[in-house]
Design brief:
The chain is α+β, with helices and mostly antiparallel strands. It has one domain (2-57). The chain is 26% helix and 21% strand. The protein has two helices and three strands; from the N terminus they run ββαβα. The chain has a three-stranded antiparallel beta sheet with strand order 2-1-3, with no helix packed on it. Strand 1 and strand 2 (11-15) form a beta hairpin. The radius of gyration is 13 Å and the shape is globular. The termini are far apart. The relative contact order is 0.22.
């Protein structure tokens, strides 16, 4: 479980298994919130160049 919080500390959301975050940062190169682990978590990282390749090959997504 992770918490998504504004820099002011206001909690925006709690995310559980299978949920994603960081899409604004990868699309717009800016972040609007921080994510903190509330419990032990495992995350997958998608490098920007891999994401760009995917979007180029699959523009319908």
């Amino acid at each position: 479980m992770v918490s998504v919080k504004l820099r002011s500390g206001v909690r925006l959301a709690s995310l559980g298994p299978g949920m994603e975050f960081g899409e604004m940062a990868i699309l717009e190169q800016s972040r609007s919130a921080d994510v903190f682990a509330d419990t032990p978590v495992s995350c997958l990282e998608l490098p920007l160049d891999s994401f760009a390749d995917y979007r180029r090959l699959h523009p319908e997504t």
